[in-house]
């Protein structure tokens, strides 16, 4: 099973000991919405992409332009109705250091330190 790493981070968990029961319940609730969801599914990637964009302080239009993606296509990507292709994800890495392991697998360890706490904060807000 893949768990979102932000749930393990003390600053996101308000310094409390990690509660496995809450994480398992949250994971189960997420899976009920989409029983076959995987970390690389477009809706799951979209949530991470939106968190990264917000952490960077960019609008959808700004990031679309930076990545060289049509703005309407980017909106579909961030809604989860269209996949983020690897060349665009790699461009995001080149521009901002957003690791493809984060985008496609949810692994926050490769994010730049200045962005990781912001990204985790946005992910937490998104799931609340």
Descriptive account of the structure:
It is a single chain. Helix 2 crosses helix 7 and helix 3 packs across helix 4 (71-79). Helix content is 61%, strand content 0%. The protein is built from 7 helices and no strands. With 128 residues, the protein is mostly helical.
Task: Work out the helix count.
Answer: 7
Mean pLDDT: 79
Give the strand tally.
0
Order of helices and strands: HHHHHHH
Point out poorly predicted stretches: 1-34
Distance between termini?
22 Å
**Helical residues, percent:** 55-70%
Gyration radius (Cα, Å) is 14 Å
Strand count, sense and closure of the main sheet?
none
Approximately how much beta-strand content do the residues carry? under 5%
